[in-house]
Amino acid sequence: xxxxxxxxxxxxxxxxxxxxxxxxxxxxxxxxxxxxxxxxxxxxxxxxxxxxxxxxxxxxxxxxxxxxxxxxxxxxxxxxxxxxxxxxxxxxxxxxxxxxxxxxxxxxxxxxxxxxxxxxxxxxxxxxxxxxxxxxxxxxxxxxxxxxxxxxxxxxxxxxxxxxxxxxxxxxxxxxxxxxxxxxxxxxxxxxxxxxxxxxxxxxxxxxxxxxxxxxxxxxxxxxxxxxxxxxxxxxxxxxxxxxxxxxxxxxxxxxxxxxxxxxxxxxxxxxxxxxxxxxxxxxxxxxxxxxxxxxxxxxxxxxxxxxxxxxxxxxxxxxxxxxxxxxxxxxxxxxxxxxxxxxxxxxxxxxxxxxxxxxxxxxxxxxxxxxxxxxxxxxxxxxxxxxxxxxxxxxxxxxxxxxxxxxxxxxxxxxxxxxxxxxxxxxxxxxxxxxxxxxxxxx
Length: 444
Prior knowledge:
The protein is α+β, with helices and mostly antiparallel strands. Helix content is about 15%, strand content about 35%. It is built from eight helices and 23 strands. Strands 7, 8, 9, 11, 12, 13, 15 and 16 form an eight-stranded antiparallel beta sheet that branches. The longest helix has 13 residues, at about 45-60. The radius of gyration is 24 Å and the shape is globular. The chain starts with 17 loop residues before the first strand and ends in a 17-residue tail after the last strand.
């Protein structure tokens, strides 16, 4: 019988590093059970949560608590034994804070998996040791690669059901490595676990003496993520123009936003895009006061030395490596709506704070996830399809390729009529980048 954990009493410093990770895998691979086990053994379950789990076990007529119910919160999820929606959970250790996105494994909910994985530093892919690598394993690994997640942990689960076999672990690892060359993931770690029994989740397993690597929690605490941010190329989309209009600050004109890449310092020359105007940074303000230097992902207010026409949706950028500024776009997208993509129809694109109209002109290919092959000759994308498209925007958009900077390289597509989000996308480098314009009337 699973016993109630004693909550950790250790204080967590405010400046503890944050790791976001997503779980993925085929149906019944044990994702929700793993997250429940991780929270339980890390002593991160509150007393009221534990009481609710115990009552659920009593009503079901069993003595063991079902740890999967910590994340499978929807009634439909508990009835069917599958994850449908994205469940977010938060916990912390003295070494690091964590945000978990428990995403669905079923192909029907690919769009939910994309949503949960879009901001993750790490993808945690589960594989049932009895079944090995299946189509959904490849699908989730490919989506993780497409979304630019820099770190991946492949947890080979249910090792207790294959007698903790080292040979089976190595066999599945070789199966996975067969299609890894087609992915763009630089850091992959394999861990044999049993989420139900707790082997190698928080505590090292005594049943697998042949495994000498870290436990899952140990790896989550130690993986190096500081270099995941692009700290080379300064980017800051303007969220808000601050004009206090008081006697004391009558000439104050600040541009507020979150830095999505790089570092900015007082006196640095920057470009204002899409206009192409240039100025120098006069001051950098934060809630705590004025500072000399700021970096991603800080939120700041920047004052410039020159009076330039800047509004919400414009971007401040360093001069050395300017982002693309163009109306013609090349992107990978995941279609997330029952109504298929329609070429020639106008949609809205939301790219950071910028919103404008777009028209899709071509579906270059659709990806067959099971084989990772590109299917050409299709004129549309349907629900959960992933493909490469070309489209044109009414106003120029300022971005880096998603591979270079996830924070400024992603966008969502919105249906004008229903206001539904119909797709999520990732910019690719345009084939012929347009020059930075001085001024132009932009029309489709």
